[in-house]
């Protein structure tokens, strides 16, 4: 059983006009198999409360084609952003940036730079080990 009841896909939360809204990820799925809904919620609301509206989904596990799946309703996102009292959480900003809906988030550039550095370190280490093994073979 889920820890909290599943809500209708369209959202069942109570709309209150005076609270700021936030577009964030709401975790669903099972243990060791996360699945997220992109939802609009009150910014002060507990994450387990029903969302005002579900705007899309995000599956962080890669599929057989090595892709992470994202789907969202861009018209409804533009509606909520046009209201003027709606923010976007940083993880959702990254997803929207990678999808081409918003400019690429700066944290995405930082992650890419770190990943490139890690790959360079691993390649250099592998080259050093190969050169050392070659020297050992030639000296024997």
TrEMBL record:
Report the principal subcellular site: mitochondrion
Location of this chain's protein in the cell: Mitochondrion
Q: Does Cytoplasm count among this protein's keywords?
A: no
GO BP, one example? mitochondrial translation
Q: Identify the GO cellular component terms for this protein.
A: mitochondrial inner membrane; mitochondrial small ribosomal subunit
Provide this UniProt record's keywords sorted from A to Z: Mitochondrion, Ribonucleoprotein, Ribosomal protein
Q: Establish whether keyword Magnesium is in the entry.
A: no
The entry lists its GO molecular-function terms as: structural constituent of ribosome
Q: What's the family? A: Belongs to the bacterial ribosomal protein bS16 family.
Q: Which NCBIfam families match?
A: S16
- What protein name is recorded for this chain? Small ribosomal subunit protein bS16m
- Organism, scientific name: Aphidius gifuensis
């Amino acid at each position: 059983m889920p820890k909290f009841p599943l809500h209708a896909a369209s959202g069942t939360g109570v709309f209150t006009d005076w609270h700021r809204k936030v577009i964030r990820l709401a975790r669903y799925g099972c243990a060791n198999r996360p699945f997220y809904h992109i939802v609009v919620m009150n910014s002060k609301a507990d994450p387990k409360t029903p969302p005002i509206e579900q705007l899309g989904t995000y599956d962080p596990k890669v599929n057989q084609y090595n892709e992470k799946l994202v789907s969202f309703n861009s018209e409804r996102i533009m509606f909520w952003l046009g209201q003027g009292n709606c923010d976007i959480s940083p993880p959702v900003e990254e997803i929207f940036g990678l999808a081409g809906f918003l400019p690429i988030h700066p944290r995405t550039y930082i992650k890419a730079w770190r990943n490139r550095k890690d790959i360079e370190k691993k390649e250099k280490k592998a080259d050093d080990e190969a050169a050392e093994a070659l020297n050992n073979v030639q000296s024997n």
